Amino acid sequence: MSTSLRRSRFSGRAVELDSMESAFRDVSGGRQRSFLVGAEAGGGKTRLVEEFANRLSGRALILKGGCIEQRESALPYAPVTAVLHELVQLRGAPAVKSFVGAEGARELAWLLPELGESSERFDAGIARARLFEVLRKLLEELARETPLVVVFEDIHWADQATCDLLRFLATRLKKIRLMLIVTYRPEETSATNALRTTIADLSLSEGAEVLTLPRLQRAEVAVQLEGLLGRPPTPALINEVHARCCGIPLFTEALIDASGGLRRDFPGSLNDYLLRAVRDMPASTAELLKVMALGGPHITHALLRSVANKADLELAEWLRPAILAGILVPDHDGYAFRHALIHEAVRRDLIAGEKVAIHRAYADVLERGPVPSYRVWHSVALARHWYGAGQAENCLRWAWQSATEAAATFAYADQMEMLKLVLAVWPEVDDAIVVIGADHCKVLELAADAACWAAEAEQGLAFVERALAEVDVGRDKEQLAALLLQRAVMRQHALIPGEIADLERALDHAPDSTRLRADGLGQFSRALILRGEFDRASRLGDELKDLSERLDDEEYRIEALIVAESLEMASGSYHIDSLWSVIDRARQASIGRVEVLAGAALLRALLETGKYPQVAEIGPAIFARTVEFGQARYIGAIIGSPLCRALLALGRVSEAIETCERMAALDPLPLGLVHVFECQAEIALVLGNSDRIAVAARSLRSLPPGPQVASRMAANLLRFDIESRALAGDMDQSATLARSVLTHCEKQGRVSWPLLASAMRVAVDTNQKDVARRFADLAARSSCRNVVEEAELLGILAEMSRSTGSDLEAWEAVAKSWADLSRPFRQAYALMQAGCAAVNAGQRAKGAGHFRRGADLAHSTGASLLGNQIETLAEKARIDLGNGKEGGMPKAPLGLTDREFEVLRLLAAGQSNREIAVHLFISSKTASVHVSNILSKLSVPSRGAAAAMAHRLRIVDPA
After folding, report:
1. For the chain, which terminus, N or C, has the lower number of CB atoms within 10 Å?
2. In which band, very low, low, confident or very high, does the pLDDT at 297 lie, cut at 50, 70 and 90?
3. DSSP β-bridge partners for residue 38
4. Spatial CB neighbours of 447, under 8 Å, sequence gap ≥ 6
5. pLDDT (tens digit, 9 = 90+) per residue, 793-820?
């Protein structure tokens, strides 16, 4: 009897394979498609991809790369390097160079030395963007020859830089014959920010499809078992295996022994399931698997031969049992564990002495020079292996080098991890300063800087505090200033007090005429603008401008211009052309940091001046630049906020939701979360969802009460509370909150126009004429900085007319102002009020036209609640919106029956079920049934909410 099982038959996944086949036909026709294949550990992701690749039968060029789990550190761009290596193996280095040209090959040589000499990277800020563009060009050229399938496996182990590249490719590669397949474990998304961001962005990209592989059903397990056994399994075996393996393909394989029987003595953990086959191997094979476990899930034959110190034939003889047993899978240049779980189990089974010896063997081989398995990230592997071998000094040297390489490619999170490794071994190394040429405090400073750009504020603040405890205040004033600036920016993004004090102290210690002082002036100016302290920000901005000229530094000249333009916006002067010019200068100078800052300022200016189509057009590209420059988590939500708001203003609600989801998926720090939660509330407001508004408001309140955005948050929270209570039917509470707006505005010393508009509407709806008059007076006294605020002012004054008899001309002017700004939701509300005013003035035809147009706009934007409200008002006016003609009012609105509408009218008048029953000559039980039906159809939780909705929608006459 054979000592090994057959390979498991591919089972299930027919729907998924059909989807992938269909997508490949799109790809063959010239349309780029992406697939995200998610499954729990052992769920069959790799096998699905293999089956699909087999079905293509030479119809495409297929390139595969996998991510490697590194507990101590990461291997940046590991799957990309593997893809390039496979391409060189298939086509040869000269062919690859011909696709990207000499300069492109020099960029790719950073990842694959076989391509020749690498480029010189004087400016790290633009190097990553060049690398991304070269990779994009390479894939486009390959796809011109033949349909191209690129597979990135196990991205739950990907480094941040690889995730950023994936998002870049998904958004930039369009209309080419490319199919991108990405596999991941969904259960890892809660722990890894990079994975959450990447999955969210890829799933929302054009042509993307998410495949979540379910567990196998009983019949599918039976097919799998038949493949394993080579014969049909008995029903009893199928039942028992299905009950125990829970439909996870890898578990099924683990439960069957080499003779085809069901394991009776297996222990209760998956780790032991997986190790069962390993422990059945000959001793020499088992020892070799241990060596491979610390080298990664894939290792080339050449590297394994060197580490194991075995001849080729002897090595092959030792490997063969593991290959036959399905533990290892060979490819053209090496071997891989069949499944990541097998690799994990073998690694976990190692004892301390084995780990030290194996790590040492790898390190000794790698010290002789780079090998294909590790390629450009040779230094990361050496740092990791020397650390595992307990050789602190060697680990220190290579971790320091790898941190430098990671910083050069914007892999900030990877840089931080390598610097953490430097700090971990520092106490064990004599003369560590001599080894790396930097003192402990400098390493902490660099780690804090990497953490800042990686948006790891908690870790970054810890690094800064440690460094501040070590810095010599009297001697190292410049280093002290740099650390204070780092702490200030992390305090800002974490909404922690003390930011301004840090900035003041940093400027006190920053030497004159230095770049460090320029950094401080720019950072301080932006912090003050965020808080609304414009005069002080202006003085610092002027100093920055003067200093940039003395330094003859283009970066700070551009930053001074951004500060100046931001201050102009605060005073109501918008220079859109100037901001475009600033962005062009930043791009020409290849300075990514100020390019992103200028992009943020431009989007804000366009948003505030009502140029929403332009924001929607350029916003995605500016957002993409934050990814290219490694700043997506740091500033992505702040860039995404105006884009989301512009899309919402334009009535493109689904796109706004997608953008908001992208922002949230970045897992930003609290300052970014302010923008995320505000956008969530704004979207819910348009959709008329009071519960979602309340949830977003609670999320906002859960953030630290930082002074950076305290005024903004207070105004928005008050507005969201007013709106959510009104939508929920609690008009008394909404009115109470609206009255507090006057006190709020007096305390803040300025007007929030959206807040004032919400409060005014509720004041009129609740018949608070004196309060409404005070709101109108306040609005009339306040200055408008832009056309959007002018439209808000028109709306507030028109609302005031509703308390005495709605002004048709005023509402038509409001509707026109919002139409001119392409804001359909606000236009629809104004048309509704204009329709009411027209009907009240006896102009029914005009009223019908306003109602009809308003309802169409509301429904087209997804604002169904507003659309229903407009239709109900038209019905009360006996205007039929269906055919454009006046006529009799339908029997009952909102899908209610005639009897339910009668019950609603009585319920809204405050009658109990018994009183309704008496009035309508029905039983109390029947009345109760009608009330339950009404609550269900109106999607409200209580009688009070139903009554409030009836009054708000004006489908019943006021008492």
Report:
1. N
2. low
3. 184, 212
4. 416, 419, 420, 423, 460, 463
5. 999 999 999 887 778 999 999 999 999 9
Among 75, 36, 750, 62, residue whose Cα is nearest residue 411: 75
pLDDT in the model for residue 641: 96
From residue 45, give the alpha-carbon distance in Å to each of 86, 155, 388, 548: 21, 12, 31, 54
**Residue that is written with structure tokens 């490697």 in the block:** 68
Is 845 within 8 Å of 837 (Cβ atoms)? no
Query: Per the structure block, which two tokens stand in for 151?
Result: 């597979």
For the four alpha carbons of 751, 752, 757 and 758, in that order, the dihedral sign comes to negative
3-state secondary structure of 30: coil
Burial 91-108 (b: 16+ CB within 10 A, else e): eebeebbebbeeebbbbb
Helix (H) or strand (E) holding 345: helix 340-348
CB atoms within 10 A of CB 270: 17
| CB of 723 closer than 8 Å to CB of 693 | yes
Q: Which residues of 235-266 are buried (b: 16+ CB within 10 A; e: fewer)?
A: eebbeebbeebebbbbbbbbbbbeebeeeeee
Other beta carbons less than 10 A from residue 321's beta carbon = 21
Rounded (5°) CA angle 829-752-716: 80
Average confidence (pLDDT) over 768-785: 93
The bridge status of strand 298-300 relative to strand 334-337 is: antiparallel
User: C-alpha distances in angstroms, 378 versus 111, 455, 786?
Assistant: 10, 26, 56
How far is the first Cα of the chain from the last one, in angstroms, to the nearest whole number?
A: 90
Q: Phi/psi class of residue 61: alpha, beta or left (left: φ > 0; alpha: ψ in -120 to 50)?
A: beta
Q: Which of 253-262, 630-639, 669-678 has the highest mean pLDDT?
A: 669-678
Do residues 331 and 31 touch, judged by C-beta distance below 8 A? no
Determine what percent of the chain is predicted with pLDDT higher than 90: 47
Residue 283 has pLDDT above 90, yes or no: yes
Structure tokens given for 277 = 């086959």
Asked if pLDDT for residue 261 goes beyond 80, the answer is: no
Task: List, for residues 178-192, the tens digit of each pLDDT value.
Answer: 999 999 888 676 556
User: In whole angstroms, how far apart are CA 457 and each of 448, 493, 494, 817?
Assistant: 9, 8, 7, 43
pLDDT of residue 192: 61
Single-letter residue type at 516: L
Ranges 115-129, 228-242, 754-768: which has the least confidence: 115-129
Task: Show the 3-state SS of 399-452.
Answer: HHHHHHHHHHCCCHHHHHHHHHHHHHHHHHCCCHHHHHCCCHHHHHHHHHHHHH
Judge whether 648 and 612 are in contact, CB under 8 Å. Answer: no
- 32's CB contacts (< 8 A; 6+ apart) are 173, 174, 175, 176, 177, 178, 179, 180, 206, 207
Assess whether pLDDT exceeds 60 at residue 13. Answer: yes
Beta bridge partners of 63: 150
Residue with tokens 């994990």: 344
Half-sphere exposure for 489 (CA within 13 Å, toward CB): 25
Instruction: Give the model confidence (pLDDT) of 407-465 as tens digits.
Output: 887 788 889 999 999 999 999 999 999 999 999 999 999 999 999 888 888 899 999 99
CB 846 within 8 A of CB 812: no
Lowest mean pLDDT among 80-84, 460-464, 507-511: 80-84
Are 221 and 245 in contact by the 8 Å Cβ rule? The answer is yes
Query: Pick from 87, 20, 15: which is nearest to 52 by CA?
Result: 20
**Per-residue model confidence (pLDDT) at position 575:** 94
Q: Please say whether the beta carbons of 387 and 397 come within 8 A.
A: no
- For residue 346, the SS3 value is helix
> How far is C-alpha 594 from the geometric centre of its chain's CA atoms?
22
Structure tokens at 777: 């007076």
| pLDDT for residue 210 is more than 60 | yes
Q: Count CB neighbours of 750 within 10 A.
A: 10
**pLDDT at 72 > cutoff 70:** no
